């Protein structure tokens, strides 16, 4: 059984994401650099996606069945 592929991003990832989005807005409005703005927005999306992937919950494993060992079996003596 596998866990979820993505988890909840930390609160601290939003500071650089907001900085990237602000820089993208400045590039778009003031410099008219659409390609740079789109690259900054893509970098912000990748940052949030990586943070969500890094914080994914661990996969739940089914409980392991005990393996029979020869020492655990009763011996018959004749």
Which features does this protein show?
mainly alpha; 2 helices; about 0% strand
Characterization of this structure:
- The chain is built from 2 helices and no strands.
- By secondary structure, the chain is mainly α.
- The relative contact order is 0.21.
- The mean pLDDT is 85.
Distance from N terminus to C terminus (CA atoms, Å) equals: 47 Å
- Topology pattern, helix = H, strand = E: HH
Class per helix and strand makeup: mainly alpha
Report the β-strand fraction as a percent range.
Answer: under 5%
Quick structural summary:
This protein is mainly α and 78 residues long.
List the helices and strands and how they pair.
Blueprint: H1 14-29, H2 34-54
């Amino acid at each position: 059984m596998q866990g979820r592929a993505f988890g909840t991003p930390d609160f601290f990832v939003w500071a650089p994401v907001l900085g990237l989005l602000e820089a993208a807005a400045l590039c778009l409005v003031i410099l008219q650099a659409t390609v740079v703005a789109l690259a900054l927005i893509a970098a912000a999306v990748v940052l949030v996606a990586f943070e969500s992937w890094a914080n994914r919950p661990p996969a739940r494993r089914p409980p392991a069945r005990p393996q029979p060992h020869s020492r655990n079996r009763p011996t018959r003596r004749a």
